[in-house]
């Protein structure tokens, strides 16, 4: 029972918000309105928490069915299958790509890995626009703040496809970002995979859109290993399940966690917010959410904390008509 004391003292944590495009990402952290499939923390264990009724028989059956379905069809509707690890051999798309495009991607990885903000911004058009509402100025501000927090990042971009449209090139890429925090006493590590589409003219990016993204942030000596089950796309108003399942046995350890969702907005990139963690009664999070009534993009995150470490996973959910 000793582990639970330390965990409960940390039941409220602050996390930075966000995502990222081809270069960067920030992590989401806000309280949200989820429907729980299991009972949450009892009132006598967490300060300021309200009593929660026991899960109904229907909820228990639903949870059991979801665990069975997840184990049998782990590859279906998961982000990890949407953005796979790229092979070591460059695809044909890159071999046949114009020199202008290959040079741009090479420069982007090199300057971003160095944290060279001036070099990176030279690769973006003054009229740059982004599907999430960013412009060139807000992009530079976000990158500067992000690289201050993570000064040692490595960027690696693979070209998946490209095509010519008049005097422009439209390219789809997958970028992997790995690195450590500036104050790394707690072994804070970041790993992200972002798939994006960009329009390039005159050797510069003039427009960009995120197609899918996944961010993993871990800290501590033994952060929980988590499998995420989340559809990449849902329709407006549609109900969907979000499961974050801890892979390894817990033994005598305890888990705290929460699931959070938030619309993708430029104002959320840099402002940290607080989340309240609940004592988990099983090996993970099992939540039911409902898509908003208007199309757009959502960040959906799972935060799970144990005595020896923390894991936070954020994925993008597209809401369409």
Question: Unreliable runs, pLDDT <50, ≥5 residues?
Answer: 1-33, 35-61, 70-89
Classify the fold: give the CATH topology of the largest domain: S-adenosyl-L-methionine-dependent methyltransferases
Task: Quickly count the helices.
Answer: 7
Biggest sheet details: 10 strands, mixed
Q: What percent of residues adopt helix (DSSP H or I)?
A: 10-25%
Secondary-structure element string: HEEHHHHHEHEEEEEEEEEEEEE
Which SSEs are present, and which pair or pack?
Elements: H1 2-9, E1 12-15, E2 35-36, H2 57-72, H3 79-82, H4 92-95, H5 99-114, H6 117-121, E3 124-130, H7 136-149, E4 152-165, E5 168-180, E6 189-201, E7 204-220, E8 226-229, E9 233-235, E10 239-246, E11 256-263, E12 273-276, E13 278-279, E14 284-290, E15 296-306, E16 309-320
Parallel strand pairs: 3-7, 9-16
Antiparallel strand pairs: 1-12, 2-14, 4-5, 5-6, 6-7, 7-16, 8-10, 10-14, 11-13, 11-15, 15-16
Explain this structure.
The chain is of the alpha+beta class. It folds into 2 domains: 2-81 and 214-320, S-adenosyl-L-methionine-dependent methyltransferases, CATH 2.20.130.20; 92-212, Nuclear Transport Factor 2, Chain: A. The protein is 21% helix and 40% strand. The chain has 7 helices and 16 strands. The protein has helices at 2-9, 57-72, 79-82, 92-95, 99-114, 117-121, 136-149, and strands at residues 12-15, 35-36, 124-130, 152-165, 168-180, 189-201, 204-220, 226-229, 233-235, 239-246, 256-263, 273-276, 278-279, 284-290, 296-306, 309-320. The strands form 3 sheets. Strands 3, 4, 5, 6, 7, 9, 11, 13, 15 and 16 form a 10-stranded mixed beta sheet that branches. The protein has a 4-stranded antiparallel beta sheet with strand order 2-14-10-8, with no helix packed on it. A two-stranded antiparallel ribbon has the order 1-12. The N and C termini lie far apart (49 Å).
């Amino acid at each position: 029972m000793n582990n639970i004391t330390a965990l409960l003292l940390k039941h409220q944590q602050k996390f930075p918000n966000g995502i990222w495009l081809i270069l960067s990402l920030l992590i989401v952290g806000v309280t949200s309105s989820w429907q729980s499939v299991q009972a949450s923390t009892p009132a006598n264990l967490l300060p300021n928490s309200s009593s929660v009724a026991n899960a109904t028989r229907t909820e228990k059956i639903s949870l059991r069915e979801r665990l069975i379905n997840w184990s049998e069809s782990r590859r279906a509707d998961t982000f990890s299958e949407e953005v796979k690890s790229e092979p070591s051999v460059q695809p044909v798309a890159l071999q046949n790509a114009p020199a202008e495009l290959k040079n741009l991607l090479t420069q982007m990885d090199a300057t971003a890995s160095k944290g060279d903000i001036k070099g990176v911004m030279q690769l973006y058009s003054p009229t740059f626009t982004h599907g999430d509402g960013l412009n060139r100025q807000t992009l530079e501000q976000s990158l500067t703040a992000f690289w201050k927090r993570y000064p040692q990042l490595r960027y690696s971009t693979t070209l998946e496809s490209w095509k010519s449209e008049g005097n422009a090139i439209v390219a789809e890429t997958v970028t992997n970002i790995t690195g450590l925090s500036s104050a790394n006493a707690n072994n804070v590590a970041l790993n992200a995979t972002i798939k994006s589409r960009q329009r390039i003219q005159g050797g510069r990016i003039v427009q960009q859109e995120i197609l899918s993204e996944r961010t993993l942030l871990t800290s501590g000596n033994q952060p929980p290993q988590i499998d995420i089950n989340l559809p990449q796309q849902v329709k407006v108003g549609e109900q969907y399940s979000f499961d974050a399942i801890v892979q390894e046995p817990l033994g005598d350890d305890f888990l705290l966690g929460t699931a959070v969702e938030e619309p993708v907005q430029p104002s959320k990139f840099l402002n940290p917010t607080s989340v309240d963690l609940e004592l988990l009664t099983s090996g993970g999070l099992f939540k039911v959410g409902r898509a908003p009534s208007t199309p757009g993009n959502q960040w959906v995150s799972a935060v799970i904390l144990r005595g020896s470490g923390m894991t936070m996973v954020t994925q993008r959910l597209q809401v369409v008509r």
